[in-house]
Design brief:
Layout: E1 2-3, E2 12-19, E3 22-29, E4 31-32, H1 37-40, E5 51-57, E6 63-70, E7 77-82, E8 96-103, E9 109-117, E10 122-127, E11 130-135, E12 138-139, E13 144-147, H2 155-171, E14 176-179, H3 188-197, E15 200-203, E16 211-216, E17 219-224, E18 233-234, E19 240-241, H4 249-258, E20 264-266, E21 272-273, E22 279-285, E23 289-294, E24 297-303, E25 306-313, E26 319-325, E27 330-336, H5 337-346
Helix pairs in contact: 2-3
Length: 356
């Protein structure tokens, strides 16, 4: 006998219901017969003595919960955890460690399953005709990025790529990932990586534009997207254009909308020469106020959010030397005027800069 690695949860699945500071947990185990098992003596009457031992430890490696159940029992194993540490997304991606041991009547281990385990409750509520997602009973507003799982290379290289990509996604202030695949096609390693980084996992079904699905242990929920979900990698309208290791300006636009860590970004392709000979410059920032310096001299303060557009910015030197400053953060950008003129001619008035 062994745990069914192809079943949900890799053979161990738990549903979580929260009530009055308690987590009511219901565990279900999927067991299959391994090859040659009949000759090994685990069929027939001997199966009656097989049991499962469950151990849940917290991040301090302290045992928080234990449970035992005979394999032949059909009822789920139920348990209660007082004052549980809940998984709350990027702010608190708390993970317990779960271990389930399949043993015979003498206590010999036949199989073992272990993995990080987030305790959370996901649900939905219809509010004014719109379906609102709930995480642990509170409203959850998805800030999602559409992501295509890497297909080529080795398992190690794919895992490395997914880790790097999700760290970029976390850095822009996203709290969710929408995978362009069916829920059954999402590998367990990717699910665990999302849990560890605090990203809620959605998936999109083909032909259902404007809708995403989330599957938790309580079931599947269909959610209508509140806004366009940006794509992580691909063409020009993606956060990371193909063949470019650096993020596009669109990445910083969403970072200005979603991130709480103060930052300011000068959009290179926004720099355009005006008829007056001065320049127009756009900045993305999540700060309430942004100051722009030209050639080291303060040009203007602006108040606003997300986008800050500065016009008639003077630049007396051969290069346009700009510095934007926000709440304890700053960024500088220098572009030679001849480069701007060349790009302007090539684009017939539409400036496009890459790799600056």
């Amino acid at each position: 006998m062994k745990f069914d690695r192809m079943a949900p949860g890799g053979g161990v699945e738990v549903s979580c219901r929260l009530e009055n500071g308690k987590a009511f947990l219901e565990w279900e185990f999927s067991i299959v017969e391994s090859a040659g098992e009949q000759t090994a003596g685990y069929m027939g009457e001997s199966r009656e003595g097989l049991y499962i031992r469950l151990i849940l430890t917290n991040m301090r490696e302290e045992t928080a919960l234990e449970g035992m159940r005979l394999v032949r029992e059909e009822e789920p194993l139920q348990s209660i955890l007082l004052q549980p540490f809940l998984w709350r997304g990027p702010s608190e991606p708390y993970l317990y460690h779960m271990e389930a041991i399949l043993a015979d009547r003498e206590g010999n281990c036949l199989d073992r399953v272990s993995r990080p385990l987030p305790l959370r409750s996901v649900g939905c509520m219809d509010i004014q005709g719109k379906r609102q997602l709930l995480l642990n009973g509170s409203a959850f507003e998805p800030r999602a990025v559409s992501y295509i799982l890497p297909a080529g290379g080795t398992a190690v290289s794919r895992q490395y790529q997914m880790t790097e990509d999700l760290r970029w996604i976390c850095g822009m202030g996203a709290n969710s990932v929408c995978v362009e695949a069916d829920s059954q096609g999402i590998p367990g390693s990717f699910r665990q990586l999302c849990d560890r980084l605090g990203l809620l996992l959605f998936f999109r079904k083909e032909g259902e534009e404007g809708w995403v699905w989330i599957q938790d242990r309580e079931g599947k929920f269909r959610i209508q997207c509140g806004e366009t979900i940006p794509s992580f990698r691909g063409g020009r309208d993606c956060l990371f254009p193909d063949g470019n290791g650096a993020p596009a300006s669109l990445y910083y636009y969403y970072r200005a909308k979603w991130s709480r860590e103060p930052f300011v970004y000068i959009v290179p392709e926004s720099i355009m020469r005006m008829d007056s000979g001065n320049f127009t410059v756009k900045c993305y920032s999540n700060c309430d106020r942004v100051a722009l310096y030209s050639d080291g001299n303060l040009f203007e303060f602006q108040r606003g959010e997300t986008e800050f557009v500065f016009r008639e910015v003077p630049a007396g030197k051969p290069s346009v030397m700009l510095t934007a400053e926000g709440d304890g953060c700053s960024e500088s950008l220098a572009v030679h005027k001849s480069f701007l003129e060349r790009k302007r001619r090539e684009a017939d008035g539409a400036l496009i800069l890459y790799g600056i």
